[in-house]
Each structure stands twice: as structure tokens, then as C-alpha cells.
Amino acid sequence: MDLLLSGRAAPRRQTRLVRVGNVLIGSAGPVVVQSMTNTDTADDFATTMQVAQLARAGSELVRITVNNDEAAKAVPKIREKLLQMNLDVPLVGDFHYNGHKLLSDNPACAEALDKLRINPGNVGQGAKRDTQFASIVEMACKYDKPVRIGVNWGSLDQSVLARIMDENAKRAVPLDAGAVMREALVTSALESAAKAEEYGLGGDKIILSAKVSSVQDLIAVYRDMAAKCDYPLHLGLTEAGMGSKGIVASTAALSVLLQEGIGDTIRISLTPEPNGSRTQEVVVAQEILQTMGLRAFTPMVTACPGCGRTTSTLFQELASDVQSFVRDNMPIWRDQYDGVENMTLAVMGCIVNGPGESKHANIGISLPGTGESPAAPVFEDGVKTLTLRGDNISNEFKAIIERYVARTYPRKGAPA
């Protein structure tokens, strides 16, 4: 049946299973949310605080830059500080150019990391490339660490690209420049994975990615790579951009691939707004997976867009208030109750669709539109339970949510 007509995503593409710290990556586990710090890793306090912030927001893996000796020496300190905070989030070390030297000079760094990320285009040039790549793989084997081989079109291995271009020139019908670039990306990733296995890294220690910043190119590259290997794939639109542009582009690309069962970890590479929180990329990743029905992280709030019938801002303020309330309370609820992340909420602005949408949610409220009776019926599991009036609707509705959670979801550790 056509997936667009079936109402569900395709089954996950079957992959090997890779353990990264306490997280399993591959088709036997859920699609995993990843993020990356933007602090100077050498500042171990600032980096620890940002890793903790990202982990508490729901990032299941956090990548940190390891670009110099000071950063490499800071990694064990960051791990120690996180453990003191009772945070066992897996750390991924991002290496470019000098990873072979940093890892060999700082064995404590290699030991403290849960995964290494290397880019074949930035490992080394000429005769040094294979030697330096082998050195990193050997360190991964020594410390039993998985590796993400992450190709990027901004730093593609030029020797691979030149070879593919030469081969393309000999074809009866040469491919266009975009197709050549996509073929080079996939070839670089797969050949690097094969080399890593030749150097002793197990196939169950390898994750691949091939990132570009064009939506259609990303979809084409991952479809091709998924068809040619069974390694887990990390998805992400690189340099996605700021604000709505970055969110929309990432969602457009990743949703198509996830709908086809492709992708085992995801990252949303948003440029933060000035003074904005780095956690936005985690929230967007979670919302993509949850709105597609692939995972549940936090209760979802349905709210109408408003129209001429809803000139009051009351429902907008209530929707925002409820969304913040749910996100703020979710860490507590998650520790106390089983299944609360599946709860659905509706905050509607008038009588047209309000009662109907409210009945579809676990808890819904239909606020009065302009000129309507100043009453807000509340529905719980499709049944109208009471009507709220007055100036304290927000607090009363949040109290109803609290009581519903306590009444409906079993406490963790309680007898069945």
C-alpha cells in the first residue's frame, strides 16, 4: 500500500545495532536524538553546563568539538563533572585534521568518550590520509569505541571526487555535476567504512552520515546509501540555517527519509538566534519524531490558528501557557509516571472546531470566541466534565491537567 495512503511510516530499514554508551543505535532501537555543543571545549565548566542542558532537554547523545590539546585534556573533566551531576549522557568527540595525534597523545580523552566522529575529507592529505585514518581506527579498537564516519559536501575527500569525475567523463552519458557530487559522497562514506573494517573495527561499531545543505540532494544521497549498506545512518541537513528556514528545511528533508524507514539518529543543525538556547535543536528533533508518530517525548498541545471569530488573545496566551507548563513539568512526570508522554491536549479558540477537537484529545478546552457565551467547556477523554469561567481559567486548567496525570498514568515502580 502507498505509504501516503496507509497512514503510517514504512518499517525501519534493517541495520546493524551499535552501542554508544548506554544508547543502542540501529533498527532494533528507536530513532535517537543527537545535538552538539557550541562552547569552547577547553572551558570544561561551560561545556559541562551546556551538555547537561542539552541532555535534560532530551538529547540522547551530545557531540563536542575536540580540536586541540586543551580540548582533549578537558574531555575527562567534563565526563567526571557530568557523572557528579548524575548525567550519564554519551559523549561524541568530533575530530578533524589532527584527531590521530590528539587521541594518541591523550588516551584519557579516548577513554572518556563514547563515540568518535571522523570526516574522511579532513583526516589528512595524500600519503598521510590512510595512515592517519588507520591511527584513529586503531584507537577506536583499542578503547572499544564506535565511530561515525561523517562525510560532508563542504569538505569532501578531493581524491575520491577527482576519481568519480574521471570515471564519469568516460561514461557514454555522463552524469550532471550534482549527481557526481552525490555519488562521491556515498562512495567516500562506504569506502571509508570498508577501510575501517580492514583495519580491525567491527561492522557493529560503524555509523555513517553524508551531510549536505540541499533538501533534495540529502534525500537522494541517503536513499542511495541506505540501498548499499546496512550500517546505521545519522541524518542531518548540514548548515540548515536560522529560525523558521532551518526548521522547515530540516523537517522537509528528514521527514521524507524517516517516512521511508531511513535514519537511526537525527540532529537538527540550527544556527541559534542571538542569545537563543541551544536546546531548540533538540526540541525540533523531538517534535519531528513525535508528530510523525515515531516516538513520544512530551504531551502534544493542539491549538487552532485563530481567525476573525477569535479576536481575543486569551486562547493564544493559554495555549502558550499550557505548552510551557507541560514542558516544564515533563522531567518530573517522566520520573514519576509511565506513559505520560503520550497524553494529548487541545486548546481551542471558538465553538466551530473547539468542542470536536477537544473531544479527540485526552484533555481539551474550548474557549469562547468573539461574541460567544463567556464559558469554556473542558473535555476529558471525550466527555465534558466541567465549564470554566472568570479570570483564573489558565491556573484552573493546569490544575485539571495535574489531576488527570496523577489519576490516569501508573506510578513507576508501583505494583501492577
Automatic annotation (TrEMBL):
One of its GO terms (biological process) is terpenoid biosynthetic process. Its cofactor is [4Fe-4S] cluster. This is 4-hydroxy-3-methylbut-2-en-1-yl diphosphate synthase (flavodoxin). [4Fe-4S] cluster binds at C304, C307, C350, E357. The keyword Cytoplasm does not apply. Keywords: 4Fe-4S, Iron, Iron-sulfur, Isoprene biosynthesis, Metal-binding, Oxidoreductase. Transmembrane segments: none annotated. It catalyses: (2E)-4-hydroxy-3-methylbut-2-enyl diphosphate + oxidized [flavodoxin] + H2O + 2 H(+) = 2-C-methyl-D-erythritol 2,4-cyclic diphosphate + reduced [flavodoxin]. Belongs to the IspG family. Pathway: Isoprenoid biosynthesis; isopentenyl diphosphate biosynthesis via DXP pathway; isopentenyl diphosphate from 1-deoxy-D-xylulose 5-phosphate: step 5/6. It comes from the Bacteria. The gene is ispG. It is an enzyme of class 1 (oxidoreductase). Residues 15-285 form the IspG TIM-barrel domain. Coiled coil: none annotated. Its EC number is 1.17.7.3. Pfam families: GcpE, GcpE_C. GO terms for molecular function: 4 iron, 4 sulfur cluster binding; 4-hydroxy-3-methylbut-2-en-1-yl diphosphate synthase activity (ferredoxin); 4-hydroxy-3-methylbut-2-enyl-diphosphate synthase activity (flavodoxin); iron ion binding. Residues 301-402 form the IspG C-terminal domain. PANTHER family: 4-HYDROXY-3-METHYLBUT-2-EN-1-YL DIPHOSPHATE SYNTHASE (PTHR30454), 4-HYDROXY-3-METHYLBUT-2-EN-1-YL DIPHOSPHATE SYNTHASE (FERREDOXIN), CHLOROPLASTIC (PTHR30454:SF0). Converts 2C-methyl-D-erythritol 2,4-cyclodiphosphate (ME-2,4cPP) into 1-hydroxy-2-methyl-2-(E)-butenyl 4-diphosphate. Binds 1 [4Fe-4S] cluster. The keyword Metal-binding applies.
